[in-house]
Structure formats: structure tokens, C-alpha cells
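Hi W., the manganese (II) ion complex you wanted:
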Amino acid sequence: MTIELYAQRIIERCEILARYSEEPERLTRRFATPAMQQVNALVAEWMHAATMAVRQDQAGNIIGRYAALDSAGKRPQTLLLGSHLDTVRDAGKYDGILGVILALALVERLHEQGTHLPFALEVIGFADEEGMRYHHPFIGSTALAGTFALPALQLLDSDGITMASALQEFGGDPEHIQAARRDPSDLLGYCEIHIEQGPVLETEQLPVGIVTAITGQNLCEVSFRGRAGHAGTVPMSNRQDALCAAASFVLAAEQGARAIPGMVATIGQLQVQPGASNVIPGTVTLSLDLRHPDDSEREQFYQQLHKEAQKIASERQMQLEWHTCSSEQTVACSPQLTQLLTSAVKQQGYRALLLPSGAGHDAAIMAELTEICMLFVRCYKGISHHPDEAVNTADISETITVMENFLQLLAHHTQEERHDEPV
Ligand code: HGY
Ligand code: MN
Ligand code: MN
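Structure:
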């Protein structure tokens, strides 16, 4: 099969997986849902067909292993490839999914050619990266990296189901989730292919780009507690309207972030209680997502927003709850692996464009376990977290070749290192 046919099949498979949704009219696939189960089953089937050894781990990640070339009795080294199979609400078809399906195609091509690399390849479909169900991102990769926070198992979703029981139902093993940690001793690294989710590659007219670092992120849940009351009878001077406090906070976050180059602040969720048109909002809970590549700048602004929220609450005689959900530091990619990716891109005749990732990725978590690198693929108008997400077949073909160059370069590199080993 030609590379172009593989590229077409990758796009077709992303389209097939997009049919597995929790909602009929749009793509929403959260952690440990029946839709996720169907997707894991399908990906496992494709992995099996490529002669991979397949397992679903304690956290619900689907993992396929393609053996190394005969390693003369030595335990072979392993390169991890992967991304996530969950989605945001009303998602596109490629965020995360492309990285898993393209990695699988690399294995399929090796299998078709009847070859193996001097190292094993493991393709991982992470069960949760977006954190949609429990407001807790990276369940899959933190479990694999051994940094999963056990108390999170008690978090409740919007139906009151704990993460532990959802995972149990899914076929995972919450009691032994720590056993999902991958032993890093044989690992060469983790490489993630992902759509860029931004406009740079399109502007630069390049199919791929190489990631230098993954921007850090603070996630927080903020509640303003005022007093509900009758919309017709409580005078304006006598209200503790929690939504008005939240509105002030939203604008303060926007204004503050605009004043700091590179800072982005997003309030993407608001829950208004009790939530009736003729009742003054008593409690508002909102999400805050803050990102900046400089950890100290981000932390400082985070603290500044906390103080701002306290001030708004106290001026309006309300209570404030400030709950930090997660705080990810900016993570640099491995210079060695990034150098190999750079050479792989140049071999294909392209300028090697290096760029930071504003979006979060499983790679940032995997950096706790092993060396990481990331390859970005151009996407239509940089659109992501939106159903209009799109990639083109020609770019996918180029990505396959770049990745095959990368695997060959890595194979050379590891063999040279082995020759250098003292006997
Ligand atoms: O939100 C992010 O950056 C990622 O897509 N989860
Ligand atoms: Mn995403
Ligand atoms: Mn993603």
C-alpha cells in the first residue's frame, strides 16, 4: 500500500472513531464512557491486525506493542508513541486521535514490509487527557508516568459517579492504578504526533513543525457564594448576586491577561445556582484556565487573580471558594530527540520550524518518566477544540515519511550507542 493510501486510511479512521460519541449530534467522548470503550475496542482490533500485543492497563489506556528485531538475548529498548482518545465537548476528529492512529500506521507499514526496528514500539491511546469528566486532566498519562494523584479517584462526575467506580466499570483497576506506571528502564523516549491547534504552520506553509516546549497551565475552580432571592422584590441595593461577582472576575481575568504578553486566561464554564430566570443567582461556580510559558509569571498572575477574587467577594459580602485543580509546569522537549526530529524533517526537504506548544499534551506528563519530543501537523486555519478541525491527506503523507525518517535515525543512533558500550 502506498503512503498516500495509508494517509487516506488514517483520515478515514479518525472519521470512524468520531462516530463514537456520548451525544448524537456532536462528538463528545469522555473518560471511561461506553463511547470510549467502543473506541478502545476498535483501536485494539487494528493493533491486533498489525501483530501487536495489546492490553488495556489499570487506568483504561489501550497499549499495543510491536516487537523489536531479534535483540540477541538482551531486553530490547522501547520507544513509546501515542496521544489521547478522549475528546472535549463538541470536539473535532483529530485532537489526540491523529497521534494514536498515525503511530499505529507506522507500525502497520513496518508489518507490511515484514520488518522490525532494533527497538520495540509501543503505541498508547490515553484514556483521558482533556479532563472533561472529572475536571481533572491527564488521568491516562499520569497513571502511566506514575504521578496520578490517588485522591482524584473520589472525584464525582456530573451524575455523582466517582472516578473509581467509572474506571472499575470500564474494565480498569482503580485499586491498583499505580501498577499502570511504566517501568522506564527500557525506554528510549516518548514521541507524540499532534495537530498544531494553531495557525503558525499554515502561515509558514509547512506541513509539520517541531515542538520545543509545552506551556504550563493552572486550572482552578472558583465559587462565589452570595444569596439567592426573588428577582421581583429584592431591591438592587440589597442583593448579593453571585453572577455579578463572577462577571467582575471574568472581566478582571481578561483585562489582567491582556496586559501580560503571552498570558492567556479562559473562563469556559459557569454554573449558576439555582439557575432560574426569576431567581437572583445565589452561587456561581466557574472554571479558570491560565497559561503562560514562564512558570513564575503564570504563578504570579494566578495569585493576583486569587486576590482579585477575594476583593470582589469581600466588597460584595460573599464567600469565595478557590480550589486549585491542577498546576502543570512548562516542560521542555528532549534536545537529543528534538534534534533527530529536526534532521528527519530536513531529510524530507522542509525547513525545520521549531515552535512552542500553547496547548497541553500527554507528552508534558510523560516527561516525568522519559525523554519526550513532539511533532506538530498543520491543521486547517489552526482550528481546534471545534468540529471544524481538519487536516489534509498530503500533510499526513509527509508526516508519515518524516516519522519514518525519525525512526531510522533513532535506530542508527541507538545502534551506535550500543557499539560504544563497554564490553
Ligand atoms: O486544553 C489543552 O490544552 C489540551 O487540549 N487538553
Ligand atoms: Mn485538546
Ligand atoms: Mn490533544
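The first helix runs from residue 3 to 17.

W.
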